[in-house]
Amino acid sequence: MLPKIDPTNQKACLSLLEDVTTNVKQIQDSVLEAILSRNAQTEYLRGFLNGQLDKESFKKNVPVVTYEDIRSYIDRIANGEPSDLICDRPISVLLASSGTSGGVPKLIPLTTEDLEQRKSFTSLSTLLIYKHIQGLNEGKSLMFYFVTRESETTSGLMVRTMLTSFLRSYKPTNSSFWDQTHISPLAISTCADTTQSMYCQLLCGLVDRENVARLGAAFASSFLKVIKFLEDHWPELCSNIRTGRVSDWITDAECVSGISKFLTAPNPELAGLIEQECSKTSWEAIVTRLWPKAKCIEAIVTGSMAQYVPLLEFYSGGLPVISRSYATSECFIGFNFNPLCKPCDVSYTIIPSMGYFEFLEVEKDHQESSHDLANPVVVDLVDVKVGHDYEPVLTTFSGLYRYRVGDVLRVTGFYNNAPHFRILGRQKVVLSIDMDKTSEEDLLKAVTNAKLLLEPHDLMLMDFTSRVDLTSFPGHYVLYWELGSKVKNAKLEPDPNVLEECCYTIEESLDAVYRKGRKNDKSIGPLEIKVVKPGAFDELMNLFLSRGSSVSQYKTPRSVTNEEALKILEANVVSKFLSQKTPTWELHKLYSTR
């Protein structure tokens, strides 16, 4: 495990990172030994190991599992049975993951000790950013964080998101470190009313705009939602600044108290400046126009978040977009040791002290884990090969053993002896007709190619999702697109020829099995794009938030089957376009990709 660190001692922290990325094998062996020696007598491990604690027995006898395989153990703990079913330390919280099982968030066990490890991990990753970007310590962070509704299991165990657990771990009576580094008071960030919290965080950031050194949110999509909120509410925010009085609908006591420290007097000059920028024809570079001393934007832009990069770049005004770490509810995994790289080049170096890491080999391009085969190929962290694709398998201090995460990673190199990976996407089929199985990664690549056709027309793809339509034969894929304009208040009337060409480009970008089904077998119909009204994806998000999702963790689902969600999308459709051409397919190309 990571030792306790002093985040003010940058030299010692950076030296620690060099050590843990150099002594990878020794650290991994000691981590596994520590986990097994602690937890050998848990009900779960006892059933597989029978007291054998060596690495060979662990790898031979403990199965590689998914959430569904261990769900019964977590449900039993949630219902009041002791934590030692899976872990020798008390489970202090169940984390509500952004991933789901049966339509509800997965519940991931976490101990207090592991939470402290993750806080140390976060401090170290922050230091890496400060190392690469000069002047960050001259200002503060305007990071848009939001808590979500908390619940309790029948046994009284708290159910929270990872970010909520982080924020709640800072006590209001001892928040001096937070106040020294963040613009918004902790009490505003932990307000349970997301709308009031977002409004007040923006108001704090605008009033103290000259002191903002960096901005960000957990995910790229979260940051863009803040920008959209600002676009809708800037006149009211300017009015508050002009009068020195917050709007009457801000009623949360902590928000009112927190914002009173910023709105100390009317400031018509600042209100006029912000109004001047926000009322311009285009919102391009709005971030640097409103926060001129900001040096970077921080948000996860890898995996499914990659599609938001063009929008971030449009609003950012050339600021570097930093994706600093790879962290899941199950485990905090790796750092980006080159935070100033382009978003498309982000790789994360595994920190071997955070857990025991194994990897299932994945067949490149087809995203089939070798775990699906008769003899799964599972390799240790030190044995992965550059250029190969893998799915991480985690063993943690909080009671997960050989747990499949579901991400697909590609090894891009090594930092010292620790491999670094690029996140390709989820190992998840999102669309399937006949013999075709389109993964999330394949769909994202195809949409990325197609949306390039929008740029010459000053259009931007704001968000998208998809579904399979089997109401006619043959069935076909439907994509819901929400479009935006680079020009403020411009009418969104896309050229039908452009959208039809987008349909064709997506089809051409999908794999040979799909194209064979379209052209040769005629078992798949022409792909369809349905353009929805602006705000449709906000309605979709609100549906899922009403069911317990968090704004900070919410990710637009890349395929939708939920009837309520489909009703929202269909009610907002304003135009429809079908692919007018058949994609290419040649027999020899099909087999050359296998």
TrEMBL record:
The keyword Protease is assigned to this record: no
Domain of life: Eukaryota
Pfam families: GH3, GH3_C, GH3_M
UniProt KW keywords: Ligase
Record keyword Ligase present: yes
Domain GH3 middle: 348-426
Domain named GH3 C-terminal: residues: 441-564
Protein name: Indole-3-acetic acid-amido synthetase GH3.17-like
Family to which this protein belongs: Belongs to the IAA-amido conjugating enzyme family.
